[in-house]
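User: Predict S8 family serine peptidase's structure from this.
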Amino acid sequence: MKRLIRSRGGQCAVVFALLALLSFPLLAASTSPAAAPTPRAADPKQKTSAWLILKQKADLSRASTIQDWNARGRFVVEQLQATARTSQAGLRGELNLQGVSHRPIWIINAIRVDADATTLKELARRPEVDRIVPDVPFHIPKPRPGVAPGPGFTDWNIERIRAPEAWGAFGSRGEGITVGSIDSGAQFDHPALARQYRGRRADGTVDHNYNWFDPSNVCGSPSQVPCDNNGHGTHTMGTIVGDDGEPGPHQIGVAPGARWVTAKGCEEQSCSVEALLASAQWMLAPTDLSGGNPRPDLRPQLVNNSWSGGPTDPFFRDVVQAWIASGIFPVFAIGNDGSACGSAGIPGAYPESYSVGAFDTNEAIAGFSGRGPSAFGGITKPDITAPGVSVLSSVPGGDYAFFDGTSMAAPHVAGTVALMLSAAPALVGDVAGTRALLDASAVDREDLTCAGTAEDNNAWGEGTLDAFAAVQLSPRGPTGVLTGVVTDASGSPLAGARVEVTGSFGRSTVTDDTGRYSLVLPVGTYRVTFSRFGSETVAVDGVVVSDGGTTVQDIVLPSVPSYTVTGRVTDSDGAPIPGATVTVLDTPLSTLVTGTDGRYVYDGVPVGEYDVRVEAGGCFEPVTRRLVVAGPTTLDFTLPSRSDAYGYFCRLQRPRYIEATTVLPLSGDDATVEVALPFSILFYGRPYTRAFVSTNGLVSFQESAAQYLNTPVPNAAAPNAAIYALWDDLFVDASASVRVLEQGTAPNRRFIIEWRDVAFVDDPSLRVSFEIILHENGNVLLQYRGLDAGGLERGGSATVGIENEAGTVALQFSSETPSLRDERAILFDLPPYGVVLGTVTDANDGLPLVGARVRALVGERVVRETTSAEDGRCVLQLPLGTYTLQVSAPNYLTATGPVTLTYDRQATLRNWALRTARAEVAPAMLEFIVPQGQRRTRTLTLSNTGSVALDWELFESGGGRVGVTSLHGQARNLKADPNSRSLRGLQGVAALPGWTATLAGDVLKSWPATGLELPWGVGFTGNVWLSDPIAGINHEFTEDGGATGRTWPVPWTEGWPADMAYDAGRGLMCQLAVGGDNGIHCWNPATGLEEDAIAGTFPWTSISQRGLAYRPDDDTFYVGGWNEGIIYHVKGLSHPDRGAVIGQCSPPDGRISGLAWNASFGVLWVATQSPTDTLYEVNPETCNVLGSLAHPEPDFSGGGLELDAAGNLWMVSLNSGRAYLVESGVPTFEDVPWLSAQPTSGRLGMRRSQNITVTIDTTGLEPGVYLATLYVRGNSGRRPVVPVPVSLIVPAYQQAVNAGGSRHVDTLGDPWAQDQQYVTGGWGYLSGSDGILTDAPIAGTVEDPLYQSARRGFVEYRFDNMPSGVYAVDLRFAEIEGLSRLQRLADVVVENSLLLPAHDIANEVGQSTADDHAFLLPVTDGQLVLRLIPRQGFNMPLINAVRLTQRPDR
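Assistant:
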C-alpha cells in the first residue's frame, strides 16, 4: 500500500485561500466576544417520530396454564403477532398509500411513524388508534464512579447478599439458566464474561446467532459481533455472571455458572424507544444475526433491565406483561432520581415489574435510589434493595471498575433469580412464585419516610436481598454430594482445575488449593469432565449421585508439554507496532506488550488450541487468531487501521511537545472561552474560523462546551464538532493554565492549544499536561506530557477522539480506558482529498438558499453530502476522483454537473441557481362583515412569478366561532404605576381573560433564563436576547438556552428595558425604554453600546409603551403598550422625521406586552398580559384579529415577543422565568362550512395569473367572530404554503343608509337601504331636513352613488331596537353643493358624544370628494341617535351615508 504523501506547497494554499475568500459568515472569526453559531430553527412542517398505540390487545391469559416451556413461548409470540397483524392491517395500508415511513412492533401492538403534525393529528382520529406517544428516548444513568471500600472489601457486595454461602450449601451457581440483558451491549470476550457467553462453543469458537441483537446497528452494519460503546452493559452483566476463572481473581458475579445473551437496547447513554421495544421483542423470540428465524425456545428465563424513565409513563407495561405471560422474570432498576417520595422510575414502577433499589457498604439506603409509592395504584416500590454503591465489576477493555447506581443493584437480583431457578427448576416460568420467595427471604429494613410498614416500605421495599435464604426457600428436591481430589501424575494436588458436570442437571466448579472439589447435585447419573491449563482433559461417565449420599470421584490429570510461541505485530504497511498487547484468552498466561520491533515471545505454552487477541489502541482494529500449539510456533498479526465513516484515520507517532505561551482568560471549573483561529480549518468537511476551548479538555468548533460528564462518541448530544484531547472533569486552578500559540507561515501554519498542569476534580492531587495542534492542512495532533501510570491521567475516565458537527460520526481513540502515553502522539488525518466550494441561490430572487442538499455521486452511490449554510454557501470535501454533483432542495428543480478532483487539496468553485415556482396571492388577507343569512364574494389573484410552472391546490382551515371577551369598560387601577412590569396590579382579580386560541401552537423549545431575575423583553439575532428589567441588563442565549457570556447594561434608560426588535440591515438591536424618554434605543449586540435612538415628543412617548416590532421593507416600527391599548406605526431611523406616526389602531385586547412583525405574511403578532396571556395575529392597518394563540404558561406571564427565522414565536413567562419557542400555528386542513372558493387547484405557467373567487355565506351562523385560513399549497420553494387569513364578523345588528338616496349595493356586495323617515321601533330621519342630489363624479371613492345624494338641514337619525354592545359608526360626507371652506360648519353628535366638532367637509377634503369617518361607540339603551347641529352663521349641514354595525369583536 502506498503511503499518503502530503503536499506542503501551493496546492494546499489554493484550498485555504479560497476558504478565506469565501469568508463564511456562519463561522466568522472575531476578536471580540462572538455569538455562538446559529442552530437552524425548527421547521413547523418537519417530520417527527411518534408511536401509534393500537387499542386491540392480545389475550395471553391461557399462557400460564401451558406447562411446556417451548410451547408456552410459541403461544405468546403467536398471539401477539396475530393480534398485531390483523389490527394493524388497515392502518399500515393507509400509511403505505400516504408514503408515511413506519415500522410495526408486535409486542405492544404499536407502529412507529415519521410524519408531520398534520398527519399525526389525522392518524390520532382513526378508530383503531388508542393514543399517540412521542418518540422520546429513555436513558441508562451515566455510571457514577465508585470508590473501593478498602482492603478485603473488593467483592463486598457478593459477600453481603450471601451468594458464596448459596454456592457452597446448595451447589447452585446458576447452571442451566440463561440470563438476558437489555443494556448498552457487553464485551463478549471479557475475561470475566467470555466463558459464560451462550454463544461460546465448547471448542472456544463463538456463534453470535440467537445470542446477540443490535437493532440500531451501532456495532456494525450489519451488526455481527457484540460490543459495548458505553461500558454500562458490560458492568451489569459482570455482576450477574462475572468470574474470570474457577474461581478467578475477579469473582464479581452472583451466578457465575449461568449463561448470558444481550440485546443492545441503548445506543449510547440514551436508549431509543424503537431499540428498547425491538430488544424486548427479541427476548421473547431470539433471532439469528439477520433478524430472521425467531426461536421462542431460546428465550432467556429472566431479563435484567438497568434503565428507567418516567415515573408515570405506561408505555412499556405491555412489554412486562408479555414477558411474564411467557414465563420470563422481569428485573428492573428503580432509577436514580433520588430521595423524593414518588420518584420510582418506570418500568420498575409497574406492579408487574420486580424493581430494585440500592444500598451502600454501610447498609444505608443510597441517596440516589428512587422511592415509592408507585404512580400506578400507589403500590409500594421498590420491591427489594441490593448493593448499589462501590460495586466492582467488568468494563470494556478487559478491565474492572467501581460504579454506583440502582443499575448496579438490579443485577444482584437477576443473579439471585438465576441461582434460584438453577437450584429449583420447578420455578422456571413461575414468576409469581419466584417473586414471593424473594420477598419472603428479604431482610426487613424500616424506613417510613415515604410511608409503608417496617416490613415493606417505599425506601427498602421488602428489605435487603439475601441470596442464600432465597435459594434455601426454593423447592430444590432431593440432593447428594459429589466430591474428590484432582492430582497430577506425581500425586500432587492441582488447584484451579475445572470440574464440569453434565446430565439431567448441569453444574461446574474449580478445585481449591488442595485439589479438592465438592458439588451438591440433584439425584441422578452424570458425566464429569476434568480440565486444567497445561494438563490433559479427562471425562468420566456414569457417575451416580444418591439422595443424601456422598459420591467420591478422584482423578489424575497428566501434564502436557509446553513450547515457545513467538510472533510479530505490524500495521497494514508492514511497519512494526510497538506497545501492542498480546493475550492468550481464557488462560492464566500474562498479557505481553510488543517491543519497538513489534515482536512478542511466550516461553511456555502447553499443547492445545487457543484464541490469541492483539490490541494496539484506538488507531487499530483488534484482531483475534486461532493458535494451535504442537511444537514451537510462530503467530504473526497484521492490524488494520481504524477509520470512521467520513474517512478520518489515526496513527501513533513520536511526540514533539510544544509549549504554548499566550495564557487564555480561562480558569475554574466547567468554563469555556471563544478563540479566533488564525486560519480556517476544514473539519469533517466544514470550515471553521473560531473555537470554543473548555477547561474540560476539549475544543468545540460549534458551541460553548462546558459539559463535564463525558460520553462515548459519536453522540448526538452536545458537544459536537469537537476534538476531545482528554474530555474529563478537569479544573484549572492558580497552578494551571490554558495557553495558545501560533507557529509557521501560510499555508503550513499550526495553532497549539495547551492545557498545562490542570487538575482532576475527582483527585486534585493529580496534574496533567496535554495539547491539541491544529494544522492548516486540516490534520489534528494530540500530545501528552507528564502522564503517570495512574488511570485518570492516562484517560481512565476520559473520552479521547474527534466527532463531526451532528454527533453522528466520530473516530474515538478511547473511552474511559487508560490508553494514553507520553511517548506517543495521536495524529488524525484524511486520505488525499479535494474541495468543491460554491453558493446555492434561488433563481427567482437571487438570494441564498439555506439547507439545499449538495451531493457527490459515483453512479447511484452517494459518496458525501452537505447542506448550504445561511448565506447559501457550502463546502464539499471529497476523496480524489470524478463525481456527479447533484444539488437539490424541496420544490426546486435539481441541478447536476460533473467535477473531477485530481490532486491533494485541489479546490474547485461551483455555483448553482435552482429554479422553482413562486406563488403570490393578493390581497394578503380577507376581512368580511356580513349579517346573518347573506352572501358576499371577493376575488383573490394568484400569480406565479417563478421560473417553472406552479402546480397549486387550495385548502381551508379553522372556521369556528371564536370565544371573544369584550374588554370594553375593563376596570383599571388608576393609581397603579404606568411603568409597572406587570398588569396584575392595574387590573387585579377583576381582570378579564383574552380570546380563546384558534391556532394550535406546540412548544418547540423551552429553557430557564438562567442568570435573570425577571426575563421580559425578547429579541432574536439567530441567538435569543432577553432583558432583565430588575437588574437593567440584556442577556444573550443560544436557541437551546446556553448563555453565550454576552450581558450588556442599559444606561440609556432611566426606567427599565422592555421589548426588542432587531434591525438586521444595520446590525442593531432596538429596544423600548419604559420610563425616562420612553423612546426606542438601538445598540450593537457585539458591544452593548447605543448607536442610535428615536426619542422626543410624540404621541407614543407621552406614556410608556411595552411592545416593539421592526418592519424592514419600509424601515418603520410598530410600538404599543397596555397603558393606551394602541399600536402606533412610526417612522424608523432612515426617515428625516423619525418617530412620526404613520398610522395607529387599537386591537380588541389592548393589554399589549410585546409585538413581532411577520414580513412573509404582512401580519403583526401581539403578546398580551392577562389571566390567559393570549397572543393575537392582527391586520397591522386595522388591528382586526386574524388568529389567536395560547400562551404556554398563562396568568399575567406575558412579556416581549419576537419571531425566529422560521416564523415561530419566542416569548417569556414572567412567572417561571422561562423562555419559550412556540410554533405559530399548525393548520389542520378541513372544510369551513361558511367559506368556499373556486377553483381549488390548477397549474399556472411562468408569469401567469388567475383569479380565485371566495364566497362567504352566513346562513345559519350565530352573531360572532369567525376566523379561518385559506392555504395555497404548491411547488414553490420559498413559500410552499401561502396562508390567506379570513376574518368574518357576523353582527347582531347592521343598518346602512344611503342618506337622501335610493337603495344601493356597493362593490363589496354590501347593501345600503333607501333613505326613510323615522317610525318608532324602526329607523330613519326626523323632520327638519331634506334630500339633495347631484350627478357630479365624486373623487376619492369608487362608490359614487353613496355620495351623490345627501340629507341636508337639521339632520337627526334615530335607530331603535339595537342590541347592547359596541358599534362601529361609519359616517360618509361629500361637499356636493359647491360650497367652499368655512361656509358649512356643523357639530356631529352621536349618543350625546361630540364626535366631529365644527366639521367642515370642504376644509378637510375639498369639493365633490369623499370624506369618511369611523368611530366605535357603546350602545346600552337599545337606541342610537345621530344629530348634525349647524353652527350659527353657516350653511346647513349635510350627510351622505350612515352605517351602524354591531361589533362582537370589540
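The two ends are 81 Å apart (CA to CA).
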